[in-house]
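User: Run a structure prediction on this.
Assistant: Running it now.
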Amino acid sequence: MSALQKFFKDTIIYGIAAILPRAINIGLVGLHTDVFGPERYGVNTEYYVYAAYLNALLTYGMETAFFRFFSKEQEKGKIISTSFISLLATTVIFLIVGLTFAPEIAQTFGFEKVMYVKILVWTVFLDTIVVIPFAYLRVTNRPIRFAGIKIANILFLAVLNVLFLWAIPNGILSKEILPDVLNFYVKDTPEVIYIFLANVFASFFTLLLLLPNILKIKWTFDRKILQKLLIYGSPIMIGSLAYVTNENIDKLFLGDIIGKTEMGKYAACYKLGVFMTLYITAFRLGAEPFFFNHAKEKNAKNNYATILKWFTILGAIFMLVVVAYIDLFASILIQQKQYLDALAIVPIILLANLCLGIYNNLSIWYKLTDKTRYGMYISIFGAIVTILFNIIMIDKIGFMASAWATLVAYGSMMIISYVLGQKHYKVPYNVKQIIGYIVLAAVLSAIAFYDGIRGNYIMATVLVLVFLTVIYIVERKELKRLLRKGS
């Protein structure tokens, strides 16, 4: 089996690990938007924005640093133990401080209940200490176990959501069967807190599943290795915080400038763009260890170029399919029509996320050359674009400003990364074909979203088939070669 075939095989398994949990999570959007109005859904969104920032801060680039040095260093056991002990120590400190000062944190950041803060702290703590065990499964090519744990986590989460938000409120199950910690449950008034509780329980369940792997870690700590990890990972952390800003600051701005109701509508429709996020996540899970492990191979750069082209092709297909059948997806995932006011953001968000995925592909140049500071600079630039665009334009065009800000930020990051990458680590990307596929998919998506055509599924299918036909005509020879290679 060729390296590319191995990559695509592992990526499919990682894809299942990414897509199935996110698909179930998307399904929960229907439950959440049915139970909560846009304003309460906005509270849920704001909560997870803070969670995203804390996750980026507390992992401080250690996951990517782990991949880099696990593939380089001889004493791999020390890489595992040092990175895990480092994250465990800092996260325990965060747990103690977060729980101690929960009332003050709740008041400062405007949380309705101190309990929200305590649940958030526990959830972030549990999610952080499993980062290295999950990374170890990926770097040692154990995608099936990785996928199994991820799927078990989301199934457990889904069951708890249904239990807390549907079964108990509708009298199907009595609250008396629940532990005393849930005695604050208010009959017929499901609280957003139950979504948070479901997450912390699911995170603890994941920790239990990974406990056998964690117990095998030898408690050896190497300060020199930690120094290497921190030097490499610190710019990654800053870049991650900038990325979280690009992904989430728009929601906070919308809540502050035009209200949580509009923010809730935007956040719910933004979830329809998660189809592209699923694809990007699946790709990243397989690609990151692959890129590091195969960097020294003779044809590595050609493989990277081939991977980017096919990533773009598949991403463009995802974008076109979602836009072409957008009313169908919206009717399934969003249960209250008032949320659909923000549906126009979806094509823009899909294209923006495709640009982000391409940027993630291109970012291999600064990771392999140990110039992670460039990734930090690019991400900070994107965050500045996002912040300024939102501040200037939200008052003028509402939540559409946030969608366009996302596209401008990720599009510019993609272009800058390509230009710099070709100077420091030149890869023979087929730029003309990649741009051609993106433009064609964008044009067909615009046609599909046009008022006279949108909702006409026959026309939608024709547009998708046109794109697939073009791909087949242009790529059939390479596709056949890739399928035959290594067989």
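The chain has one domain: 3-484.
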